[in-house]
Amino acid sequence: MHLQAAFTLAVLGNGVAYALPGAGNYAFKKPGPTDYRSPCPMLNTLANHNYIPHNGRNVSIDQIVAGIDKALNIEPAGVRPIAELASTTSTTGVPGTMNLNDLGKHGVIEHDSSLSRKDTALGDNIAFDAQVFDPVAETLFASEKISITTAAQARRQRIAAAAAANPQFNFTAREDGASALESALYLAVFGNGVEGDARSDWVEVFFREERLPYREGFRRSKEMITGQDLRNLSAKVAQAAS
Which residue blocks in the chain are alpha helix, DSSP H? Predict the structure, then answer.
């Protein structure tokens, strides 16, 4: 049975078999032509694994909170305020829900100088853009693990590149804080919530494929990643970039 099918089984002595993470209901599946996706690679990844609805439509705040908890073990209390903010972009007409592509509304969750998307003023701000990400990747993946300093350097370079390319570039303290928090998120999920040190190969899979790198060895954190962990790590990223 192939690992690529994400359905490898571990058979115990009592004859009971258990699917590895990323199998069954949570097997990776690329979005189809009618599925919605967002500017956020993490939400897209969760949808691709069906931790939130795969079609990306009418996704509720509760589904986002529960899906992030189940997939990544991030404290629900830290996730809910961000999910509630995201829901303010909704076009569904149903309170507390959103379509993933609603998050493309500029200046709410989406912001200029994304590590992997074009700025809104320059084109498609939802789809992954290799031309944007490749220069980031050169810095980010120079070593096997991504330190706080490396993450900060890659972020700083992307901000400078976006500012130079976009005549309408807007990057206030609010956007700066959101950007640092996004870097803290991938550092904590694919490394640890104190020093980062995320595995480069895992982070590359996450950005380029919007897939959780189960096949490469990733597992959900055994310890809950708290909102305070992310805020502390975000502050370290911001400080390292100054």
Answer: 41-48, 61-72, 76-87, 130-140, 148-165, 173-190, 200-209, 227-241
